[in-house]
Design goal:
It catalyses: DNA(n) + a 2'-deoxyribonucleoside 5'-triphosphate = DNA(n+1) + diphosphate. Single-chain monomer with multiple functions. Keywords: DNA damage, DNA repair, DNA replication, DNA-binding, DNA-directed DNA polymerase, Exonuclease, Hydrolase, Nuclease, Nucleotidyltransferase, Transferase. This protein is of the alpha/beta class. The strands form 6 sheets. A 6-stranded mixed beta sheet has the order 3-2-1-4-5-6. A 6-stranded mixed beta sheet has the order 7-10-9-8-11-12, with helices on both faces. A 4-stranded antiparallel beta sheet has the order 21-22-18-23.
Amino acid sequence: MTTTPIEGVAEASRPALPAEDRHLILVDGSGYIFRAYHALPPMTRPDGTPVNAVFGFAQMLEKFLSQHVASHIAVVFDSARETFRNAIYPAYKAHRPEPPEELVPQFALIRDATDAFGVCRVELPGFEADDLIASYAREFEAEGGRVTIVSSDKDLMQLIRDRVIMLDPIKQKPIRAPEVMEKFGVAPEKVVEVQALAGDATDNVPGVPGIGIKTAAQLITEYGDLETLLARAGEIKQPKRREVLQTHAEAARISRKLVQLDVNAPLPCPVEDMRARAPEPARLLAFLRENNFRSLLARLGEGDGGAPHRPRPVVDTAEASPEAAPFGPYTTITDRATLDAWIVEARAAGVVALDTETTSLDALAARLVGICLATAPGRAAYIPLGHAPADMLTEMPAQLPQAEAVEALRPLLADPGVLKVLHNAKYDVEVLANPANGGLTVAPLDDTMMISYALEAGLHGHGMDELSQLHLGHKPISFDEVTGTGRARISFAQVPLDRATAYAAEDADVTLRLWHALRPRLRAEKALALYEQVERRMIPVLAAMETAGIKVDGAELARIGQDFAERLVVLEAECHRLVGRPFNVGSPKQLGEILFQEMGLKGGKKGKTGAYSTDASVLEELAAQGVELARTVLDWRQLAKLKSTYVEGLAAALAADGRVHTDFSMAITSTGRLSSTEPNLQNIPIRTEEGVRIRRAFVAEPGHVLMSADYSQIELRLLAHLADVPTLREAFANGEDIHSRTAAEIFHLEPGKVDKEARRRAKTINFGIIYGMSAFGLGARLGIGPGEARGIIDAYFAQYPGIRAEMERLKDEARIHGHVLSPFGRRLWIADIKSKDPVRRGGAERQAINAPFQGGAAEVIKRAMVRVPQALRDAGLSARMLLQVHDELVLEVPEAEVDATAATLKSVMESVAQLRVPLLVEVGHGRSWAEAH
């Protein structure tokens, strides 16, 4: 077998190394473990023990040893959850979830893998791996040696010095003082001071509220260290900053103790025991054979590597080199023998990209035309299944019968040992699950669209063609190029097989290359948990919801349509009466001329076409001035839109089963929120009479009810959580009316003296603050002047100073990084934040303020959605989710299971996130969606 470059002779015969040749590599073992676990699908060895993390760890360790040479090496592990830091601060890391059940039995095997490769492993109860790394680095450096810490953990950056560097294990890039300065704004020896102020939500390090990395770096640069800063806090000119530093001084001191690594931690293993050595062949081979790691055996020169269920490797962009392979030519699969050979190849690869060609963009109505596979960059094929000649004179193209191809593919697509990679996987999952297309199950899977979305929501689009040009520098063949355009367009089923293969197989090839390029970034950019735990798990949840659909009462819909039509006639007649003559109410041009020419109203502005603008903002302003025509036209427009979008739109969307099957878009918004189309069910008015009427048409099947579970004031709760406002937290904790409490505090009223008008104003500002509303905007909402509105806003911020500090922090974060973070760590990219246009920049700043609240709310309900189905099954309940509308879930529930389902819903939804304030879910039910509210 081959040996790694890190090898040597027996310990007893080794001479002492000169200091300049002494190089210690310390591998952060925990980082490797979780990277391996999340990168691989579930795997088991013959006795049923899960080993996906073990295999990934062994593979990464073998690769690292083959590429790096050192005199000493050790892998350092965390020994237990409880350390000396928990005695200092019991909440330290307390919110971290327990490791997955299937990972727990793999911890011991991972340590066996380290031993089998001949690498010293180090751990010590009561100390974190980071402390041991710090202590060994100090000891080895004191002896004149060099140290490389293999980790991307920011906490270890405090250790960097001339002879101690870090190596990012994913990017394989060194991290030295300049990289630390870029990240923290200070030199490595000051990192602890900055972390003490900024805190760390990941580890529950409290820090000082409202102070982020940038501000902390500025303060430490000015004052030198934490104690000096706290001693001189009274000198700080900014009152709010001075106040929080004085109030939270002890929390900062505790935080410093938590983030300071213990360079004097005991050394459980003598440094010389870390001397690099070759693994014992018998021991390593026995370990690999026991765990059935045949591909690693083959790599080391043993065995054939041809395991029928070989796990997919951990691939990074440097190893895969997807850009090196040409795009095509590709294979057309028209016979069973060729298909079988590709299936064997896919199993051997352990990962296969998959795409479908169909007759429709409607996944539930689409029929298969062909299936595409890719097993390696540049290695892809197209399986035509539903092609037909364009005319009677053309011979039928050769292709496999669909039923035969589907049955051949069925085991592969369901094989837990082969990862299927798709782009916009929800569509293909629904297409293939359709019994008309074979009823295929696709699992496990990765979705390159959702990987991109988890990394860069709001930065750009996430369509395959756009991502290909962005990440691969390749422009794929367009659909129009193969089908034509306009009257000359043909269906894809009529495209000749050579052109169809070039187009379709390229899609699978591009998808696989994108996976190679994007998947390794998830952990490095802290988006892995978001993708693995939320976005990827949403795919089957939404597919099930879309397939289920929701029942619509056609007769009730017709009655609503008739009523709306009659009311439109009345409103139109009223508009004509107000003008004194008939005109086309739906014509902006005619309306503009009437308002600003005939009636002589002020404020008219012409657009590029020469017509006056009469959009909603213009009419709202006129209506606020008492112009009756403007108000009546607004009412007419709203009713006309509801009639066309929902009454007529729903009627057109009704399927043969009497249900509407909306399409949830997963990667459109910049905040993580879902949107829906065909039809859009997200924008039905909630509080208007017309919206209630429309919701009355959504009904349950006989013997069932519709149940609505709605998060109460989720964005305000996130505001209280993020800004850490004690009075708001107290109000939510006590179940008070938050708007009345706000009114009492900002208007200085007794709690019992808050009237409806004061509460209305407080409610408007509570929600307006989340959207970065200006004094002008608030004044327009409340019907008061900007000056009075500014006074209300000032009073609000005076009462809740933490909110203004949080808003300023968010704007700073967006300016510095180009994005803000949701409460759960999603990067929300903010376009135009550095625009020179003050209007666009102002809009971007408002978006930066609002995005964490919308994004946080979106993630809360997504976390609920991925947990609810399993919770219902575990409780023996048969309710099914049908819709998600912003902060609300709608389910269809058997009448006999109403109480049990409501209890399960509340329990799951209120426990998906631990905030500083409680989550509250309001549950109702009824025969219709309207009755459920």
